[in-house]
Amino acid sequence: MIYSTAPGDGVGISVAVGDLDGDGIDDLLADAPLENTGDLTYFGLCSGDVAGLSVAAADLNGDRRKNLALGALQADRRDDSSPDAGEFYVILQQ
Ligand SMILES: [Ca+2]
Ligand SMILES: [Ca+2]
Ligand SMILES: [Ca+2]
């Protein structure tokens, strides 16, 4: 069982399954998009972006390994020019 350590974190709102580390065994990703206590950090994203409200695992670069796609509903664009316009990230493993 996966559970949150703080009320309102939203653990389980978004989940994805896919072999993210290439070991042949599917991995489970469960995000906490409403977490605001600093227990979860996405480097490059700001507090309040609601990162992880949507997640997906798929091979997006053709290397046969699943990549993680992550939506940040209330992100403001990299230059802060569009408040709450949202952003979308793809994480490519090395
Ligand atoms: Ca795996
Ligand atoms: Ca891939
Ligand atoms: Ca925002």
Describe this structure in words.
The mean pLDDT is 83. The chain is built from no helices and five strands. The strands form two sheets. The protein has a three-stranded antiparallel sheet, with no helix packed on it. The chain has a two-stranded antiparallel sheet with strand order 1-2. The protein is flat and about 40 Å long. It has 94 residues and is mainly β. The site of one calcium ion (CA) has 6 residues, from loops.
Brief rundown of the structure:
The chain has 94 residues and is an all-beta fold. The protein is 0% helix and 29% strand.
Jot down its keywords.
94 residues; mainly beta; two-stranded antiparallel sheet; 5 strands; 0% helix; binds calcium ion
